[in-house]
Amino acid sequence: MAPTRQVAPRFAVGLYRVSTAEQGQSGLGLEAQEAAVRSFVASQDRVLVAEFSDIASGKDDRRAGFQAALLNAANSAGCS
């Protein structure tokens, strides 16, 4: 019998964003995004290692959550 090959876990970082404070306060936009990302990550046999969110325009890539997600993904081996 051939030895079982270990597959390295694959990781993911979630980033959720809404444009307005009203959307952020309602939680509905962020909650829907979180559910969709978590479902996708699970369907791809990945491990969600961190989640970040922003309540700001997507035009500004200096957003704190966006920058933190990029840094976290860059520092996590096997992260996408």
From TrEMBL:
A Pfam family annotated for this UniProt entry: Resolvase
Protein name, as recorded: Recombinase family protein
Gene3D superfamilies hit by this protein: Resolvase, N-terminal catalytic domain
Segments crossing the lipid bilayer: none
One term of GO molecular function: DNA binding
Organism this protein belongs to: Plastoroseomonas arctica
The Resolvase/invertase-type recombinase catalytic domain, residue ranges: 12-74
